[in-house]
Amino acid sequence: VQLQAFGGGLVQAGGSLRLSCAASGSTFSRYAMGWYRQAPGRPREWVASITSGGATNHADSVEGRFTISRDNAKNAVYLEMNSLKPEDTAVYSCRRFALGKDREYWGQGTLVTVSS
């Protein structure tokens, strides 16, 4: 299983970005997926997650600004980020949660930089 996140970049405060995470494998729809971020000098933190059934949860810090979604036909999960703030600057990574005996997987991150 391979996960590849992309869509990061440099954006001004108040702007928007859409991150994508493409997953290999034929059983993508069975797994919950998540987005995490790690800012310089800080521990990795959970941003949002989506279940196999499409139920979503978002961290308080991004609630109302970020939206996680998935497209099982494309084996992809997305993070729509609006009203970006400088404190959103981080490397964003996607995660496929473990399920039964199937282990978790992490993708390479994509850097989001929000300038003030």
Oligomer: single chain
**Low-pLDDT residue intervals, each spanning 5 or more residues:** none
- Mean pLDDT over the full residue set: 96
Reported for the largest beta sheet, the result is: 7 strands, mixed
Number of helices: 0
The arrangement of helices and strands along the chain is EEEEEEEEEEE
Distance between the termini: 37 Å
Rg from Cα? 14 Å
Number of strands: 11
Q: Per the principal axes of the C-alpha atoms, what is the gross shape?
A: globular
SSE class = mainly beta
Strand percentage: over 45%
Residues in helix, %: under 10%
Identify the notable features of this structure and list them briefly:
4-stranded antiparallel β-sheet; 0% helix; 7-stranded mixed β-sheet; globular
Describe this structure in words.
With 116 residues, the protein is mainly β. 0% of the residues lie in helices and 49% in strands. It has no helices and 11 strands. It has strands spanning 3-6, 9-12, 17-23, 33-38, 45-50, 56-58, 66-71, 76-81, 90-96, 105-106, 110-115. Strands 2, 4, 5, 6, 9, 10 and 11 form a 7-stranded mixed β-sheet that branches. A 4-stranded antiparallel β-sheet has the order 1-3-8-7, with no helix packed on it. A hairpin with an 8-residue loop joins strand 9 (90-96) and strand 10. It starts with a strand and ends with a strand. The model has no long low-confidence stretch (mean pLDDT 96).
